[in-house]
Amino acid sequence: MFAASACALALLPAGSVAHADVVAPAASSSLRDECATPSINRYQQWLASGEGTTVPATGSLLVPEGDGYAAKVEFLRDEWHVAVLWLANQFEAQVDLAGSSGFWLTYSATDDFYVQLRPASHWSGGDKWLTLLPSTGGQVERKFVSFAPQDWTWLPELGEPSYPFAEALGEARGLVFVGKTPNKLDFRGLEVDGYQSPCR
Predict the structure, then answer these.
(1) Which end of the chain has fewer CB atoms within 10 angstroms, the N or the C?
(2) Digit-coded pLDDT (tens) for 179-190
(3) Residue 161 CB coordination number (10 Å)
(4) Regarding the domain with residue range 49-192, which homologous superfamily does it belong to in the CATH classification?
């Protein structure tokens, strides 16, 4: 069901561990650099897609956390769940990440899950390039996810992408977090090498 129809509805508007030679940016941006509306490192659109049983079911994942915000979602059942981040803070936009080495993600998770890099031209459906994000045992950790093609794969259950990974990098619309097991996800930071999202 996920491969055939999921991600075709609510996604419309309405990993490898850090390498020694990759320099980490600051753990989080200054509050002065954040957007006027709720954001995490200037990313404003963290969304529950309505696919899979999640809390929240739809809408923004952003909640107050300390002096800033966190994006929190809970996957409740043994079924595919979907949560979305629009990289340029609006659905119609796309970003060329061909020159980026990858991204730093600060998060906690109680089980393994995946992140898909979805291009504008192949947004819907489950047949996407993805990489595993490991469970942190519920502890907040910071991991580097490389954009090296060999670090990305696909799942037979969801289908093989009909486009090369380079295309996903060149016209990236969003990061989509998917998982098939109960999971508590808490995102605290996202820094993409060579890219800063515009506030909308």
Answers:
(1) N
(2) 999 999 999 999
(3) 22
(4) Galactose-binding lectin (2.60.120.430)
